[in-house]
Amino acid sequence: MKKYLSELSIGDMAKISGFDADRCSDRDFARDLEDRLLEIGFEEGLKVEVLHEGPVGRDPMAVRVGNMTVGLRRIEADAVCIHEEDQQESHGNEAAAAE
Amino acid sequence: MSDLHIALVGTPNCGKSSLFNMLTGSRQKVANYPGVTVERRSGHYQTSTGRQVHLVDLPGIYSLKDRTLDERITRQVVTGAHPHEPRPDILLCVADSTNLRVHLRLVLELRALGLPLILALNMADLAERDGIRIDLDRLSRELGVPVISTVAVRQSGMTGLKKLLDRDLHDLTRKQAPAGEGIRKEQHLSTRDLQKMARKLANRILIAEGHQHRITRQLDQVILHPVVGPFVLFGLLFVMFQAVFSWAEAPMAWIDGSIVWLQDRLVAFLPESWFLSLLNDGILAGVGSVIVFLPQILILFTFILIMEATGYMARAAFLMDRLMAKVGLNGRAFIPLISSFACAIPGVMATRTIENARDRMTTIMIAPLMTCSARLPVYTLIIAAFIPNKTVWGGMGLQGLVMFGLYLSGVVSALIVAAVMKMTLTKGVAQPFLMELPKYQLPRLKNLLIDLMERARIFLRRAGTIILSTTIILWGLASYPKAPKDATDPEIYYSFAGMLGKILQHIFAPLGFNWEITVALIPGMAAREVAVAALGTVYSLSGDEDKVADSLVNVLQGSWPLPTALAFLAWYVFAPQCLSTIAVVRRETNSWRWTGFMVAYLFALAYLAAWAVNSIARAVIG
Predict the structure, then answer these.
(1) Which residues of B touch A28 (CB under 8 A)?
(2) What are the chain B neighbours of A43 within 8 Å (beta carbons)?
(3) Is the ipTM above a cut-off of 0.95?
(4) Closest chain A residue to B12 measured between Cα atoms?
(5) What is the pTM of this model?
(6) Long-range pairs for B248-257 at CB < 8 Å and ≥24 separation?
(7) For B71-84, what is each residue's pLDDT tens digit?
């Protein structure tokens, strides 16, 4: 079963596996969404980590992608497909990178 | 040597505008591109060899597509298709060193245009602190363009950059020409392919990747915390409001005092004549009503600019986005709307941080519904005269309750209007919130001062001219023709304003407004608080402001029925009786149609609300 960035919560890490803007019901909105996500720095193979969630309805969410933090609404995060990372392993990687 | 035209291009948050400030200093001006609301910042400086360099700071963009107004303008300028902007000789592409992987894509896209390009890797200090190391020579070689490392908030790198820009233009062009053939095809590459190219390039030139900006992460643990975060935000807003009201009080009193002093001087030196009246009641009063706003505007903008420069503004938008989204607005609309509680003028000017044009327009249109401080004298007067000072339900004062109700009606109607506009006038494709949360940075005093001066200049110049000419017209209406010698009524009765008031009275009668109110509304167009002084004039009261307000309480109690007073309050919740706001909305929207729409809908709402309140109150009281 496919997983999406919108399903994650604070502390979760994952790897971006692709985009699927067609899931969005608003066709016009979806049209440019993939390009916009790419432009701001989302890309296949990059790691993402959910850092923060908005105070109301846990929306929007702040995600670390690459070397930056991006804020996005869950409806937008719904277009980002992910593989969930093994928590232990990725934490190990983080620690190693920080050394 | 001929003048050089340079355009600065880059993503939002790359420090492009700070770099621009550093290069041009105060020799810059901010205007709008003709016909649109996109801000055009331009400036110039002279090189050591005496060449004039004209710089234009293009809007921050992520790509050259045609999706947003910012992208369209930038695209038009860099391709030479813009009707008013000359095609630049050199593109100065600014990229954030700490996030090169993402920014190189835009660099590749820009290089494909075939214009001479210089790449400034900005925020070099932050990159160094985070342990990021970039092979500048290799990047320059692979791209075939000069690359320079800069720190926009410091002089560092600025001399090198200026020297680079001063080199012979032909030299630059020649050097970059051979690559031309090969790159042209990049223009047709998709975002994804460009991204791939950029990433490969980044992998080759990044010597060390660095680690996350630790301070930013730690600060965000508090500032974006779901519970603590909103507290910090509201605490900050509380301090901001305290500052606006308490710090601005003294300078506002000085301005008022100086105007009165000048008026007294004129009375002492000039004989009583129409000329003296024009100077005192027309020009000086007009100038006074403009600059008296300045302290509040400067204080509010100091807060707003600091929030912007430190990176906090994006966090405030993040925290408030869900609530604002409920009425179809972006989280970025929150600060401008809150500022409008002090005064709609800086609020409307602060909407520049909203990238989406439609969201920005909606926010501007509803900003005047936030109860600004100028409504307070009117509210206080009517409440003191008509609302009994007694306590109701559990110790709450009735007067305070009415005041709260007035504030609440403003907010609730603003939300309704925004929701209705989103479904009609500003309808369109939903805009993503998608926004970078930039790294925290300390603001630089110099940048802050330049920006602050620019805001003050915009307000004084653009709004000032409209306000001044209109106050003179209002003065003429209220002073002419003169009253006959044997006049029994107050002077204003015989003037054009008086005549206009009599005509308007037919329209305003259903609201329970009498002739005195309709006449007072005419000079009251200048600013809301002027209505108090105008009522004083109509009821032939004299003395200073406080005395007039005191005696007005008694006069009004005797001559207005309660439904009239309540309808008058309802009128002031909506009525756009503030020339400065109208002038600023005209400037910021760059459109008389939107301005006209705002004035019309607010007057319509004011009329409906006052009519409803008057009718209901009369039915209830009997």
Answers:
(1) 429-430
(2) 195, 199
(3) no
(4) A40
(5) 0.81
(6) B248/B295, B248/B296, B248/B299, B251/B294, B251/B295, B252/B292, B252/B295, B252/B296, B255/B288, B255/B291, B255/B292, B255/B294, B255/B295, B256/B288, B256/B292
(7) 888 888 988 888 88
